[in-house]
Design goal:
The complex is a heterodimer of chains A (389) and B (328).
Chain A: E1 10-16, H1 27-42, E2 51-55, H2 62-69, E3 76-80, H3 86-100, E4 106-113, H4 133-137, H5 147-162, H6 166-180, H7 195-200, E5 203-205, E6 208-209, E7 218-226, H8 228-232, E8 239-247, H9 267-280, E9 289-291, H10 297-306, H11 315-318, H12 337-340, H13 347-358, E10 370-374, E11 381-388
Parallel strand pairs in A: 2-3, 2-4, 9-10
Antiparallel strand pairs in A: 1-7, 1-8, 4-7, 5-6, 8-11, 10-11
Helix pairs in contact in A: 1-2, 6-10
Chain B: H1 3-14, E1 25-26, H2 33-43, H3 48-51, H4 53-56, E2 65-66, H5 91-101, E3 106-116, E4 120-121, E5 127-135, E6 139-140, E7 144-156, E8 162-175, H6 180-187, H7 189-194, H8 209-218, E9 222-226, E10 232-233, E11 248-252, E12 256-265, E13 277-284, E14 289-294, E15 307-314, E16 320-326
Antiparallel strand pairs in B: 1-5, 2-4, 3-8, 5-7, 6-7, 7-8, 9-10, 9-11, 12-13, 12-15, 13-14, 15-16
Chain lengths: 389, 328
């Protein structure tokens, strides 16, 4: 029985639907399409899949997906909580199942009509939430109703403390927009952005402008996780999981961890970093590319620090016009990310991590050995490092 | 609605932007004393400059003038308006009918802005030209998804002299509540007043209801306290994370605080809130932290670390909530 998840599982298939602003189909349709594509990508039959994992926020239940796709007997399923924080958790749950023999081939998925259906950017209101309504009620009456408003509070303090400016945030947004110009599946394909475009975009929640915020999209994205041994007999070059963890830190709340000593840091990401580096035997200098969760641009700066790519408060010096792209210190979100590809709640960032290992990114850097992918910022989260077989 | 159908609808409504709704409309009567008097009666206006020729002769105008806010009244079409838009009579009607026929059956006036160039004199005739100025992207609002339509009307007299202008914005929407809000806006009056949106309220549960009740009853800011070890905690929770005790009481905070961090919120805008909002995390003097709103302070004057003091804000619907303002 393995004691860690180091090299115990691999991503052998990825699948995605078209990303759009109005899919015109059900979320179950999107879910089953991306799941089926991930299975086809791996080159196995639906009947060989015996586990499914998704988000608690997803509306397509595991058995509905299984029955629709033609997946037969299942011995493992689970759902991971906390919105975008769940992304890596899906992989962690699937890897645990594969490593322990609870299941052989697990598909993880997220599918949403995030623009034409229930929109994340519209925030919370009484009729959407149930059990955690009281939690949100400490913020809603005061006007703090949207993810942008919650993150803005942290970003304002971070920028005040370390002197980061809108220009630094702009480099993140503009670089990822540039990446999307080579990605025909990206929502922002064909829509390049200049510094002027960025600066002229309207203030949403100061210091966040419109282009500091990710989009809202319809679509689905799925990954197939299996053992590295079985992956060798499948169709694609596998992305082996060198280390994976979920991470929630003392004082954690969902988007509102405002009661800790230092709000200008991401201690749950520091915990995730410590865990994945220890599990993989790697460190920041071994990471060749990343897909850091990018619902909002300041999150990238804070994660660069949490994962040791630079010191605390130094991300503003790390982030330049070309540091986060091919040839730069850390090519990041080479597909465009949530900001410019699509808001698939982070699963599309995991899919890009796999493509980077395969050498199939639309902006492929040379010699990628290890890729770091993270999930939601400000929520209980996680991190994973993919490596070559 | 399919993507294609929606694209077609959006393309069609965009063709209305910039169009006059029809030819200029001239008021049925010139500016006259009887109408001024009736309008003043209806509005409760009693200034003699509008009503009494003797007093008015001593004003800078030298004669009776019309109240500036009456500007639009001179060109109103009267009883015909009740017939609605089923038979469109102008471009504005056609635009509304197009949206109505596509499911955007709700309509709410959202805001209007008027500018007056000068007072109108007796005998002048008023002509108005209304142009469809802009149509927003589709927006999700509390009432439902829809489009904000803004018209701009310019007013001139018989010699083409500028008298003022007015912009008027309506929301044309698909009712989110299956039509109840539409019924209210059609009914107007009391029903519409009852629908006036207010801030989102907390649910009153075991763990938090008492806090809001104390705010309302005592006009104070309570902080929960462990009844065994004395540790303070906010937001309230059912167990002390230091000693495990489920016994608690509360203290009244002094109301003194410093600003830990803040954001000025511009979008999206929810019904029941006034924007921009300065939302904040404050450090209470007692050591606990809480989310709140900063008032009586311009956004540009807010700074991290500033001293604050609590005040109890009472909304129009009677809801009380602790806000903060710069310390005096």
């Amino acid at each position: 029985m393995p004691t860690t998840l180091h090299n115990e599982a691999a991503i052998a298939g990825i699948g995605q639907t078209a990303y759009s602003k109005n899919s015109g189909v059900s979320e179950l349709s999107l879910a089953t399409e991306c799941v089926r594509k991930a299975i086809d990508d791996a080159g196995i039959e639906p009947s060989e899949v015996d586990g499914l994992v998704t988000y608690t926020m997803d509306s397509s239940d595991e058995v509905e997906v299984a029955r629709t796709v033609g997946i037969g007997d299942m011995t493992f399923w689970s759902q991971v909580n906390y919105g975008g924080g769940a992304a890596v958790g899906l992989v962690a749950h699937a890897a645990m199942a594969v490593a322990t023999g609870a299941a052989k081939n697990v598909v993880v998925y997220r599918a949403l009509n995030g623009r034409s259906g229930q929109r994340m950017g519209q925030g919370v209101s009484g009729n959407i939430i149930s059990s955690d309504l009281i939690h949100w009620s400490w913020y809603m009456p005061f006007g703090l109703l949207t993810p942008a408003s919650w993150i803005a509070l942290q970003a304002q303090l971070y920028m005040h403390k370390y002197g980061a400016t809108s220009e630094h945030l702009a480099h993140v947004a503009i670089t990822q927009r540039k990446h999307a110009q080579n990605n025909p599946n990206a929502a922002m394909y064909g829509k390049p952005m200049t510094m002027d475009d960025y600066m002229n975009s309207r203030m949403v929640c100061e210091p966040l402008r419109l282009f500091d915020c990710c989009q809202e999209d319809d679509g689905g994205c799925a990954l197939l996780i299996t053992s590295p041994e079985r992956a060798k007999d499948m169709k694609q070059k596998p992305a082996v999981i060198r280390g994976v963890t979920q991470a929630s830190f003392e004082g954690q709340e969902q988007m509102t961890s405002f009661y800790r000593d230092d709000l200008a840091a991401l201690p749950e990401m520091e915990l995730a970093a410590q865990r994945v580096y220890e599990m993989s035997g790697l460190s920041a200098k071994d990471i060749d590319a990343a897909c850091l969760y990018d619902a909002f641009t300041p999150e990238i700066l804070m994660q660069l620090e949490a994962f040791g790519f630079c010191g605390k408060g130094e991300a503003k010096d790390f982030v330049t016009e070309d540091s986060l792209t091919i040839g730069g210190a850390l090519p990041n979100n080479t597909h465009g990310g949530l900001l410019s590809e699509a808001y698939m709640h982070g699963v599309n960032n995991l899919a890009e991590g796999v493509r980077l290992i395969r050498g199939e990114s639309c902006n492929q850097p040379e010699g990628v050995e290890h890729v770091l992918v993270t999930s939601g910022v400000g929520v209980p989260t996680g991190a994973v490092i993919f490596g070559q077989d | 609605m399919s993507d294609k159908k929606k694209e077609a609808l959006e393309a069609e409504i965009r063709t209305y932007v910039g169009k006059p709704i029809g030819p200029p409309v001239t008021g049925r009567d010139p500016v006259n004393e009887p109408m001024i008097r009736q309008w003043c009666d209806a509005m409760g206006e009693s200034h003699p400059a509008y009503l009494d020729a003797a007093t008015a002769s001593d004003t800078v105008h030298g004669e009776i003038v019309a109240p500036p806010t009456m500007l639009q009244a001179w060109i109103m079409e009267g009883w015909e308006m009740h017939e609605g838009y089923d038979e469109p009579k102008n471009e504005q009607h056609r635009l509304h009918k197009l949206l109505n026929d596509n499911g955007y059956t709700g309509v709410l006036g959202t805001n209007t802005e008027e500018n007056y160039t000068r007072y109108l004199k007796l005998g002048e005739t008023v002509t108005a030209l209304t142009v469809i100025d802009s149509i927003s992207e589709e927006k999700a609002t509390g009432a439902g998804i829809g489009y904000f339509i803004t018209t701009v009307t310019t007013f001139t007299n018989q010699d083409g002299e500028d008298l003022g202008n007015m912009s008027f914005r309506v929301l044309r929407f698909k009712p989110a509540d299956g039509g109840a809000s539409q019924a209210a806006s059609d009914g107007g009056g009391e029903a519409a007043v009852a629908q006036k949106p207010s801030r989102i309220k907390p649910p009153y549960g075991h763990d938090n209801g008492w806090w809001w009740e104390k705010v309302a009853e005592g006009d104070c800011l309570p902080i929960q306290r462990c009844a065994d070890c004395g540790k303070l905690r906010h937001p309230p929770r059912p167990m002390c994370d230091a000693c495990g005790s489920q016994n608690w009481d509360s203290i009244e905070a002094s109301g003194k605080a410093t600003l830990h961090t803040f954001t000025v919120i511009h979008y999206p805008q929810f019904p029941g809130y006034e924007y921009p909002i300065i939302s904040a995390i404050v450090d209470l003097e007692e050591g606990e932290r809480m989310a709140s709103t900063i008032v009586e302070c311009a956004p540009e004057d807010v700074s991290i670390g500033m001293a604050l003091e609590m005040l109890i804000q009472e909304d129009e619907d009677g809801f009380k909530i602790p806000f903060f303002k710069p310390a005096s």
